[in-house]
Amino acid sequence: MTEWNQPPGGSRPTLDDVLKKILQQLKRFKGGPIFILVAGVVVVVLWTAWFTVQPEETGIVQRFGKVMRTAGPGLHFKLPYGIEKVRLLPTARVLKEEFGFRTVSVSTVPGEKTRYDTRGTNKDESLMLTGDLNVIDVQWIVQYRIEDPIRYLFQVRDTSKTIRDTTEAVMRRAVGNRLGSDVLTTGRVAVASEAKTEIQKILTTYESGVRLVTVELQDVTPPDTVKPAFNEVNESRQDRERTINKAQEQANREIPKARGVATQSISEAEGYALERVNRAEGEATRFAAILGQYEQAPQVTRRRLYLEAMTGFLSDMKGLYIVDKDQKAMVPWLPLESSGQPSAQGRQP
Fold this sequence. Notes:
Elements: H1 15-26, H2 32-47, E1 50-53, E2 58-63, E3 66-71, E4 74-77, E5 84-89, E6 95-99, E7 102-105, E8 115-117, H3 123-126, E9 127-129, E10 135-146, H4 149-154, H5 159-176, H6 180-184, H7 188-205, E11 210-221, H8 227-296, H9 298-314
Helix pairs in contact: 1-2, 5-7, 8-9
């Protein structure tokens, strides 16, 4: 059994390497150039009659340019020596297009950052004009999958360039229909969602065989030349918003308090008015009743009213002095407290 030495790294040997090995082995045998030629043709035919499709790929088999079939992951065979050719597409992989920047290297070591290229060569596709005539720098990515590999290869001449041109045109229109402040702050998600829907619609119309996964805005900033002025304006807007929020907070606190005090005052005034009216009506009713009794018995009623008035008046007094104008030598003392005893003793002045 002949052992083939693989190149460094374990990669698949090329056709030239195989032919060289075969020629070296055939030099040991006798049979002439014809045998060597036949053996070389057989090896070439067998070598070009099989191909391998990786797990994330789909193979498109073409016979003289015409698509014959597709092949899934695994080992497959085809007509050899250029009769059938295979084109492999990563249909199970998420592909990405970057706008405004380029990924230089992706870090696989913890703690090491991925490096990006954001030089001025990419500014032509990221600088955009907004609806309020401001210029902003928008960087974004588009991720997609190859949904139909046959359409991806043959329906559009250059599918990758078509995706880039379509995406840039749609993104410029979405940004141009909005204010620059909206794109920089709260409108980023809406811009990405609107762009994704519009891009997918156009690519479906083109029958490109592509299905978008996501459209995401990475970094949205003003141009470097106007960043200081933009930061000052942004700080002023933040101060204004902060002042408005503070005033609104105070208004929300004071207005309900004032309304509560006003409602309380109105309720107290209404209660006082109702009390006065009811008291006046009661007094009027009482006076009418007394008048009726007085008309029937004036002397009795007059005396009863006098006694009731004196009873109410004297009940609030703590002491009472009764002075007789005819008696000057002695002042009688009449205590009115409930605990005291009446006494007729007097005191010489």
